[in-house]
Amino acid sequence: MKTVVIKKHENTRVPFLRGILIRSLLDAGLSFEDALDLATVVREELSDKPEVTTTSIHSNVCRLLEKRGHLEALEPYRLPIAGLAKIQVHSKSGTVSSFSRGRHERHLQASGMKAEKSENITAMIYDQLLASGTSKISTSQLGFLTYLCLQQEVSKKAAKRYLVWSEYQRSAQPLLLLICGTVGSGKSTLATEIAHVLDIVRIQSTDMLREVMRMMIPDRLLPVLHTSSFNAWQVLPIQDIENRDKDQLVADGYRSQADLLAIPCEAVLQRAIEECVPMILEGVHAHPDLLLRLPTGADTDAIAAHVTLAVLKPKELKSRLRGRGAEVPQRRAKRYLSKFESVWSLQSFLLSEADRCNVPIITNDEKEKTIHQCILQVVDVLGRHFDGTPNSIFGVVVDQLEEQAEQVPWNRLVPQLIN
């Protein structure tokens, strides 16, 4: 249970953080060991209290200081309590910003860590920085400290993924993520969530590209462009359509439409490569073959990742299609449900294509789990391109600290790293 600290004069409620108390005690003149010990006692005394005021904490700390004989720190601590300590983060480019817990958590999530674990790790690091009296830290130092913390508190695999993501972010290589799937599989929702975590600002929907083409080319000239992807076969010039296999017809219709959409899809991907901007291309037409159209080898430094989403239970997919109609009436869920057999057939074809092209298939049963699996796939692809060491990535002398970290807790190395 988290104890909430009530600041009556500011009318705010914040969680109790041992690190902030330690910082106050350090400012009052206590040694780090004494401040840590006293703050730990205070935290234990508050463990069963849901709420506490700053005044009561202040009085309790003064009592403990007097009881333990730390009279030299008693008077300085009795002075008005300082506000929340801020830690300045200095980047290599020279910019300075306050330590952002949210930004640090997203960086951990982008390396493949679950949200709850990311929050805990960030809190531990922030708490320790405050406890050690840190007022400023470089991005390289913070990165290496996070790496050491992950090694000891999570796993070496998690620390390695963090290295991979950190090295990628320091590179100028654009990431292209393609998300494919049939209607109702959750592509748009997932793309938005993943873009937020990976800090990608450019998302392109293949449906939007199709709408642009429809405005440029009338129905009478190219009818296959003006139908749904699962119904495109109905306008193909096939004479003996009654004798054809229905699943094959759905696949042929989709391919005809996807071939047309491949041109604008290739254009937006090429533009992202030229501008070195990471991008997500999502939609039913984000077929694996699109990657074959892009330059490879020495012609580009772009990194492409691809996933195909699946909803493997017909009832679940129908439920999602009904939900689309309730939330956005313009999507006309009834039309999708009336053609559900074709929608299901198209999904089967897309999954077989993903299998043929060795594209990971991710079952979208639970949103948070699916987001995590997609990000893990991205980091796995990045791991084939980046394999740097902590020293090469963070640009600080870390060899000696790495050796010590095998025997010494990471938090004890903070003073050495900062200084």
How much of the residues is beta strand, in percent? 5-15%
Number of strands: 11
CATH class of the largest domain: Alpha Beta
Instruction: Say what the CATH topology of the largest domain is.
Output: Rossmann fold
Which strand order spans the largest sheet, edge to edge or round the barrel? 8-9-7-10-11
Q: Helicity, in percent?
A: 40-55%
What is the residue-mean pLDDT, rounded to a whole number? 88
Features of the shown structure:
single chain; 419 residues; alpha/beta; Rossmann fold; five-stranded parallel β-sheet; three-stranded mixed β-sheet; 18 helices; 54% helix
Describe this structure in words.
This protein is an alpha/beta fold. It has 3 domains: 4-78, no CATH class; 88-170 and 389-418; 175-383, 3-Layer(aba) Sandwich (Rossmann fold), CATH 3.40.50. It has helices spanning 18-28, 32-45, 54-67, 71-78, 101-110, 115-131, 139-153, 156-169, 187-198, 206-216, 246-275, 314-327, 333-338, 340-356, 367-383, 390-394, 399-405, 414-418, and strands at residues 4-7, 12-15, 51-53, 88-90, 96-98, 136-138, 175-180, 202-205, 279-282, 303-310, 361-363. Strands 8-9-7-10-11 form a 5-stranded parallel β-sheet, sandwiched between helices. The protein has a 3-stranded mixed β-sheet with strand order 2-1-3. The protein has a 3-stranded mixed β-sheet with strand order 5-4-6. α1 (18-28) crosses α4. The radius of gyration is 28 Å and the shape is elongated. The relative contact order is 0.12. Residues 80-84 have low confidence and may be disordered.
